[in-house]
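Q: Hi! First time doing this. I have a protein sequence and I read that you can turn it into a structure. Is that right? Here it is:
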Amino acid sequence: MAVDERRRRHLFERLDEVLGPPAAEALMEELGSLGRDQLATRHDMQLGFASVRQEMADLRGDLRQEMAELRGETRQGMASLRTEMADLRADLMQAMTTQTRQLGTWMLGTMLTLSALVLAASTL
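A: Yes, that's right. Below is the predicted 3D structure, encoded as structure tokens:
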């Protein structure tokens, strides 16, 4: 259905009442430059929205999958870190035990040597 000049004038008058002269003129200029086949219909908009919704659903699924993978990697990393810390703790405990035994042995040797010197000095 073609829009004749009378209908365009009526549309402009209604737009002028609702939107005001500057907005009505701008809208009419845009409508005049577009052909009827270039205007979007509700159906066109619904198709566009459906497409956007599908893309968002796909992205949401991808994001959830990536987050699940990251959680798995984090858990693996934490388990590896715990194992490594337990190994380091065992190594540290062994080194401290060895050092404590060595110090005890040296101190006992030093005390026995000093005791023998004191005993020898007291007999002179």
